[in-house]
Amino acid sequence: MTGMQIKQDEEFSLVIHPHPRSETLALRFAQWKEVKSAKEWDSCRAGMKDFKAKLHDNCYVCADFCKTQFAGHETHRLVAELLRKVASHCTLAYVSDEAGYYETGDVEEARDAIDANARMIDGFVMKLKEMGWKVAGTDPPPYLKRRHF
């Protein structure tokens, strides 16, 4: 696995590159009063909608997402553990993990969920090909060939 790259690009911001086959995770903290008053649509404000009653203007908030499925199980686990570490320093933290690892710590359950998702995507790609569509980049990801966490 390639090493995770983390850089601080602003005072309250971390940009994390977990793996070349993973999306970048950007933890950009801003005060709630700035986020809620933004004139344009804001993903952070949208992510905080369920927590608005608990937030004060001077609270720092952050919301982002990171798709790790194409980087493999180990990268997914490392991103979840990094978020767990960040969350341990927060007053309020909510992390949603589609594979369930963050919530349960169960590597087998997470691996099964990631593999099931990959099989579903592969099935969808096969159907598109059967219908005559040309689908680029459909070689199976390397992590499907070696099951490890």
Note down, in words, how this protein is organized.
This protein is α+β, with helices and mostly antiparallel strands. It has one domain (5-133, 140-144). The protein is built from 5 helices and 5 strands. Strands 1-2-3 form a 3-stranded antiparallel β-sheet, with no helix packed on it. Strands 4-5 form a two-stranded antiparallel ribbon. A hairpin with a 7-residue loop joins strand 2 and strand 3 (25-28). The longest helix is centred in the last third of the chain and has 24 residues, at 107-130. The model is unreliable at 143-149 (pLDDT under 50).
The residue ranges in which pLDDT falls below 50 over 5 or more consecutive positions are 143-149
Work out the strand percent.
5-15%
Taking all residues together, what is the mean pLDDT?
86
The number of helical segments is: 5
> What spatial form do the alpha-carbon principal axes imply?
globular
Give me the count of strands: 5
Biggest pleated sheet: 3 strands, antiparallel
Structural class, please?
A: alpha+beta
C-alpha-based Rg, rounded: 18 Å
N to C succession of SSEs? EEEEHHEHHH
Fraction in helix: 25-40%
Q: How many angstroms separate the termini?
A: 11 Å
Structurally, how many domains make up the residues?
1
Q: Within the largest sheet, what's the order of strands?
A: 1-2-3
